[in-house]
Amino acid sequence: MTENEIKLKAIAALTALRGDVGADYVSDLLGEVIPTHFVVPDTADPREVGLAVLDQLSDPLSALVNGFVLAFEAVADAYDRMDPDHSTDAILQALALNIARDVD
Fold first, then answer.
1. Which of 14, 23, 25, 41 is deepest in the core (most CB within 10 A)?
2. CB 41 within 8 A of CB 102
3. Per-residue pLDDT tens for 47-62?
4. Is-contact 40 53, C-beta < 8 A?
């Protein structure tokens, strides 16, 4: 799967969540970007196996995060143009403060 295809999966997942499609569908959709098989050297020690798996996971997960960020930036820019009295920066700061107050 290409980087752009993975970014599209991230955008599709966000769209599905906003459309009340269901968490199972979204989970399946995002699961499609994770490799189902990993190539590791047959002589590798546990550390090498872990690094090989991590290396094969890092590109798709990075593309997925980039897709979420790209989608957020597009929505935030559109929102800021529509409602300049309540910027996305202020909304994010309020969210961060709420999360900080709810520390377990």
1. 14
2. no
3. 999 999 999 999 999 9
4. yes
